[in-house]
Every structure is written in C-alpha cells, then in structure tokens.
Design brief:
CATH architecture of chain B: Orthogonal Bundle
Low-confidence stretches of chain A: none
Mean pLDDT of chain A: 93
Helix content of chain B: over 70%
Number of strands of chain B: 2
Shape of chain B: globular
Radius of gyration of chain A: 18 Å
CATH topology of chain B: MetI-like fold
Order of helices and strands of chain A: EEEHEEHEHHHHEHEHEEHH
Oligomer: heterodimer
Number of helices of chain A: 10
Strand order of the largest sheet of chain A: 6-7-8-3-9-10
Shape of chain A: globular
Number of helices of chain B: 13
CATH class of chain A: Alpha Beta
Distance between the termini of chain A: 33 Å
Radius of gyration of chain B: 22 Å
Distance between the termini of chain B: 35 Å
Largest interface: A-B, 26 and 17 residues
Strand order of the largest sheet of chain B: 1-2
Largest sheet of chain A: 6 strands, mixed
Strand content of chain B: under 5%
Helix content of chain A: 25-40%
Order of helices and strands of chain B: HHEEHHHHHHHHHHH
Mean pLDDT of chain B: 93
Structural class of chain B: mainly alpha
Low-confidence stretches of chain B: none
CATH superfamily of chain A: P-loop containing nucleotide triphosphate hydrolases
CATH superfamily of chain B: MetI-like
Number of domains of chain B: 1
Chain lengths: 250, 277
C-alpha cells in the first residue's frame, strides 16, 4: 500500500503548551481517514499541520517529519503549492462574500488560469463533483452567502476541488449541519475518495463508522490507537479507545 | 439620572435643528429672490457691482474639483496605508505609524494652509507653472488632510472582516498578499465606501487651508493650474463686509453647502445600512 502522508515523531507546542506528543501516522492513498477523540485532544491541530495552517498561530512550533509523497512539507515544498495540493474544508462554511462563480473560480485564478472558457468548465465540473450543480446552476452570479448552510458547505468542497488537490482535509465539516445535509456531505466523501485522499476530523463516531476506511483515536495529544475503522470500533485493543467508543467519557 | 442623559442628548439634536432652521430660513429667501437657476447655475459672481449678479456655479464647480482631486490623491494612498497597517505592518513599526496618522488628524487646518503656502505653492508654481495657488495645490493639501479619515475607517473595516475569509483563501494556496487584496479588501468594501464618503464630507467642508492656497478667483477654471474658489471660501472671504442681498447670498451659499453635506450623510447611511444586511 502506498502512503499519501507519512508523519514521523511529530511534536507540536503552542508556546509552552504541548499539544501533540510523538505522533507517528501513515495516511494511505485514496482512502478516508477519520480522526476521532474528545475536544482538545489535538486532532484538529494535527490536521492543520498537514496544510500548514498552523503557521498562522503565533507561537506554534512544529517538530518532526511530515512527508507528502515522500517530500517534507515543511522543508521541500513551498507553502502555497502545498496548500494547492492539500485542500481544506473548514468547520463553518467560509465562502467569500462574492458570487458562487467567483468563489469557485478564486482558486484556479490564483493559480494562473485566466481564460473564461477554461474557468467555466472548471466551475461546472467542480460543482457537479460536489453534487450541487443542479441546485446552483441558475444562480452562479448570485452571492454564495444566499445558499443554505448545507449547500454552502458543499460549495466549500467544490471550491476546494477547483484547484485540483490530491488531498482534502475536513475539519468537522458537518458539525453545523442538519442530518440530511450531513448525509449528503458523507455521500460526497465516499464518492470523492475514488480520486482524492481524505482526512476528516469528526466528533460524530457514527460518521466515522459510515465513511472512514481507517480511524485514529486521539487522547491528550497522543494517538492512542489507529487501524481499520471496523476493527477500531468492534475490537479496540486499547482500553481507553474502548471506554471512549463505549461512551464512558468524551 | 436618566433625565440628565436625555437632556444632554436633546442639546445636540436641538443644535442640529436650530442650525438647520436658521440656515434655511435665512438663506432660502435670498435664493428665491435671486432665482434658483440664476443662483445655482449663474456663472458670474459680482456681488458689489451696481448691477450685482449672484451666480455661485463657479464655486460649486470649484468645490467639486478640489474635492475630486483630494479623493484621487487621498483615497489610494489612505487605502493602501490602511491595508499595510491592518495586514502587513510589523508590530514594532505599527507603534510608530499609528500615532503619526493620528497626529495628522490633530494638526489644525491653518497649519496645513501654512505648509501649503510655503512648500506646496512654490513647488507647484515651479513644476506646473501659474501662480501656484491652484486646484492642484488645494487638492494635494486636502488629499493629505483626509488621509486620517480614510486610513482610520478603512483599517477598522479591514480588521472587522472575519478571519475565516482570509484563512479560506490561504487554504486554496493563495499568498498572503492575494488573500488580503482579493478577499479581505473586497469583503471590507462597504466600510471603505463609508470612509470615502466621510472623506468627501471633510474635503467639501474644509475652509481655512483651502482659502490660503486655492487662489479664490470666483470664475470657472479651465486648467488645473488655475485658482478656484470653493463654497466655503466664498463665504469666509466676503462675510466681513457683505451687506443686504450680498450677505443673504452668502447665507444661501451656506445652504447649498449644507445640502451637499446632508446628501453625503444620506449616502453614508445608505452605504452602512447595506453592510448590515
């Protein structure tokens, strides 16, 4: 099996607070990997290391190796091209206050695509890929903020797809959505993993069970257990994983 | 105690009301007597001739010219300064730049006028020709004077843009610069527009500095190097000796100025209410 990400001996400090301890993790190609664990356990922190969004946090200090296809993302790859390859969908929709079209086209334009025909095609393809084309094809020039919460989140996914990434990181993408919208996003993930590697942080364990091929359980900044989702949920080796999944804390 | 607050609030409302009533009551009859079209559209201002004419069109145009010039100079500089302060400025430098900008706001307008007279007027004279007391000079000084307004309001508008927009742009692989210029700045559009409207108000209403450097000729200018007289300058220059209809015509000039400011305020509230939607 080929790995998309290899993380070796990673430690992360926010100032004097250590948020991640000795993380070793391999993320396989074209699968969905879920990070689960209680709040503040470091799962979002690790996710944000993978596209270096942690760089924005003052006093954040990352040690260890993060390899994307064997290249060190902190040393070998320029941060803008890293983020082009590793897209991200945030917890709350952060569509820009502009039209749907301009939102989707922002990424391609950033990376030098100017021809209208080409942009039109990218916008249509991505909206179709994100299964939202039918809902917004008649209002591409209208403000993206007029869409519902669930639609906005799928537009965010479409926008992330528009730069042709290899990996999509999702930080609790459905935590603000209703069950039907959640289901749509989950179906989308299952669909997208045929072409993309997906890493998703979730509080919802059923969600992890439904969509993830592999699951990593985080506790107090450490990965306590990682493995195929089915095994993690049915037969956890680690006592703490069992307690968390059994609902004894969290 | 509440009554005290109410009384204080009423004082300012009362002042606005009294000024409003007084201006219109005193100015409007004169405008009516001269004739609205003749007053607003007349190109000749000869208030002391034996056959006096009271056309303030040159002054309206003068105010518009210097205001437009001030906006062309002050808005780009101020806006980019605001972008720099909000998104690019290192913290240590910020501590020096911000007080400097605030100091600019605190300088009395007569000092700006002085600076214009002794530095900018000779400079404009030697570079562009003419006397130096001109539209260019007045625009330049006014452009500097509106900087604090533009910078202050634009900066707070930029800082009020949710950081998710910025992060979203970065996450798509945009550079810091592109994220700021293409996402954060457009998102702050309504605040920036409000800043520009306020700056226009400031420039239209400025008197002292303009009188000292604009030349004050009451005629339609044909070149940027010619002098102009603004509405405010018209009032202050002649108020000292004007009598009769001439005096009332100056009050009428004040009414026109007042209406300009009222319209700008309407525009401002339209701009800011759009933001809240």
């Amino acid at each position: 099996m080929s790995y998309k990400f290899e993380i070796k001996d990673a430690n992360l400090h926010y100032g004097s607070f250590q948020a991640l301890y000795d993380i070793n993790l391999d993320v396989p190609q074209k699968q969905v990997m879920a990070f689960i664990g209680p709040s503040g356990c470091g799962k979002s922190t690790l996710l944000k290391c993978l596209n270096r969004m942690n760089d924005l946090v003052e006093g954040c200090n990352v040690e260890g190796d993060f390899l994307l296809d064997g290249e060190d993302i902190y040393r070998d790859i320029e941060v803008t091209s890293l983020r082009k390859r590793v897209g991200m969908v945030f917890q709350k929709s952060n569509l820009f206050p502009m039209s749907i079209y301009d939102n989707i086209a922002f990424g391609p334009r950033t990376h030098g695509i100017k021809k209208k025909a080409e942009l039109d095609e990218i916008v249509e393809t991505c909206l179709k890929q994100a299964a939202i084309w039918d809902e917004c094809k008649d209002r591409l020039k209208k403000s993206a903020l007029g869409m519902s919460g669930g639609q906005q989140q799928r537009l965010c996914i479409a926008r992330a797809l528009a730069v042709k990434p290899e990996v999509i990181l999702m930080d609790e993408p459905t935590s603000a959505l209703d069950p039907i919208s959640t289901l749509k996003v989950e179906e989308l993930c299952t669909e997208l993993k045929r072409k993309y590697t997906i890493v998703i942080v979730t509080h919802n364990m059923q969600q992890a069970m439904r969509i993830a091929d592999r699951t990593a359980f985080f506790l107090h900044g450490r990965i306590e257990e990682e493995g195929p989702t089915e095994r993690i949920f049915n037969n956890p080796h680690n006592e703490k994983t069992r307690e968390y999944i059994g609902g004894q804390f969290g | 105690m509440q009554a005290v607050f109410l009384v204080c609030a009423c004082i300012s409302i009362l002042c606005v009301a009294v000024i409003c009533i007084y201006m219109f009551a005193k100015g409007c009859p004169a405008i009516a007597k001269i004739g609205v079209a003749e007053f607003l559209g007349g190109k000749d201002w000869f208030p002391t001739n034996s056959q006096p004419s009271f056309g303030i069109f040159p002054m309206i145009v003068g105010s518009m010219y210097v205001t437009a010039g001030a906006i062309m100079i002050g808005v780009p500089v101020g806006l980019l300064t605001a972008v720099f302060l909000a998104k690019f400025c290192p913290k240590r430098l910020y501590k020096f730049v911000l007080p400097a900008v605030n100091l600019l706001a605190g300088i009395p307008s007569i000092v700006y006028g002085f600076f214009g007279m002794i530095v900018v007027v000779p400079f404009v004279r030697s570079v562009f020709g003419g006397t130096g007391n001109s539209i260019i000079t007045a625009s330049f000084i006014l452009g500097i004077m509106i900087l604090p307004t533009v910078i202050g309001m634009s900066e707070s508008a930029l800082n009020a843009v949710p950081s998710q927009y910025y992060e979203g742009a970065l996450a798509l692989g945009a550079t810091h610069e592109r994220s700021v210029m293409r996402v954060v700045l457009p998102a702050a559009k309504s605040g920036v527009c409000a800043a520009i409207v306020l700056a226009i108000g400031r420039a239209v209403g400025e008197t002292m500095a303009v009188v000292m450097i604009a030349g004050n000729q009451a005629r339609l200018p044909h070149q940027l190097t010619q002098g102009v007289r603004t509405l405010t300058a018209n009032i202050i220059m002649e108020m000292g000796y004007a009598t009769g209809l001439h005096y009332d015509a100056l009050l009428g000039t004040g009414v026109v100025l007042f209406v300009f400011i009222l319209m700008l305020n309407l525009l401002l509230s339209a701009v800011t209410s759009k933001k809240e939607r």
